[in-house]
Amino acid sequence: MEDLTLSIEKLEFAAGKLRAIAHPMRIAIIDMLDQNRRLSVTEIYNNLKIEQAAASHHLNILKNNKVLIAKREGKKIYYSLKSTTLTEIIQCINRCNED
């Protein structure tokens, strides 16, 4: 029989991920990466029309909370989603707002 109890550690981990995506700019980054699979920092801040420092700040939050994977290729760092699960959660929330 499977143990259905949630540990405090698992709950904290889940809450951390939800806090990490709880910002409009970070949701936009996740959406862009869901559509494009992999983007550089430059592509991200140019598409969002924000400063490079702001993009890096949001990317670091997502990376540190294990939402994104960062891979360096030469001088560029490319980001991709670690999983599509959070994208599905965002889509579910958006469906809740539909009339």
Chain-wise SSE layout:
Elements (H helix, E strand, L loop, with lengths): L7 H14 L2 H13 L2 E2 H8 L3 H13 L3 E6 L2 E6 L3 H12 L3
Antiparallel strand pairs: 1-3, 2-3
Helix pairs in contact: 3-4
Share of helix, binned: 55-70%
Per CATH, the superfamily is Winged helix-like DNA-binding domain superfamily/Winged helix DNA-binding domain
Note the run of SSEs as H and E. HHEHHEEH
Query: For the residues shown, what is the average pLDDT?
Result: 89
Largest sheet: 3 strands, antiparallel
Query: For the record, what CATH class applies?
Result: Mainly Alpha
Kindly identify the CATH topology: Arc Repressor Mutant, subunit A
Alpha-beta classification: alpha+beta
Return the CATH architecture: Orthogonal Bundle
Question: What do you see in this structure?
Answer:
This protein has one domain: Arc Repressor Mutant, subunit A. The protein has 5 helices and 3 strands. The chain has a 3-stranded antiparallel β-sheet with strand order 1-3-2. 16% of the residues are buried. Helix 3 packs across helix 4. The protein is α+β, with helices and mostly antiparallel strands and 99 residues long.
Keywords summarizing the entry:
99 residues; three-stranded antiparallel sheet; 5 helices; alpha+beta; 14% strand; Arc Repressor Mutant, subunit A
